[in-house]
Amino acid sequence: TTLRSAFVLAAALMLAACTTTPAPKAAGATPVSPPKTALWVGNSFFYYNNSMHGHVGALIAAASPGAKGYRATSVTISGSGINWHDMESHFRPGGVASYSFDASNNVVFNSFDKPFDVAIMMDCSQCPIHPQLSPVFHDMMNKHSATAVRHGVRPVLFMSWAYKDKPDMTTQLAEQYTLAGNANNALVIPA
Fold it and tell me: What are the pLDDT digits (tens) for 14-28?
């Protein structure tokens, strides 16, 4: 979808700021200009209910009617962990976002200086805090962040939320996402 997606991150950050659990500050976080294009990489949490990028795009459209240049692409695998994604393939020339559809459903071939401004990545809810999967979470966030940076894309980690019956997961998830964010100079969007 060639919707407006830099405000995607800005809108997501604004929505996330409304949470009751403050997120620890990431070390070395530097201000950046708002992104206009985003790659959303994760699982069903990103695509159910008309997709996270679709909702953020609608917020952007409402806040800035007629704004141009915003684009969001969602790459999700149902029930997956972040280790199921081959991040390098998402940046392959002629691959993800190489074409889209206009209002009349015609194929439009795209050409970009760089594929995306940000890559927003989320793991499964228990993966970052699971005894066996936590090391995988950190290894993959390191690897995927490095891949994004190599392609000129800023890594952003989207903290998954706790299970409804296990609210204590929130603090544990915040800690692991903040550690991964700090290790990769990545922004963290809190749940």
Answer: 444 333 344 455 555
| 99-127 pLDDT, tens digit each | 989 899 999 998 888 889 999 999 998 99
Whether pTM > 0.85 for this model: the answer is no
CB 149 within 8 A of CB 155: yes
Asked if 22 and 168 count as a contact pair (C-beta separation under 8 A), the reply is: no
Helices (H) and strands (E) in the chain, counts: 6, 7
**Where in the chain does DSSP place strands (E)?**
37-42, 71-76, 99-101, 107-109, 118-121, 154-158, 187-189
Contact of 74 with 109, CB cutoff 8 Å: no
Using CA atoms, how far apart are residues 90 and 143, in angstroms rounded to an integer? Answer: 14
Amino acid, res. 40:
W
Q: How far is CA 142 from the centre of its chain?
A: 15
Q: 168 near 129, Cβ under 8 Å?
A: no
Beta bridge partners of 167: none
Sequential DSSP letters for 73-104: EEEE-TT--GGG--HHHHT-TTSTTSEEE-TT
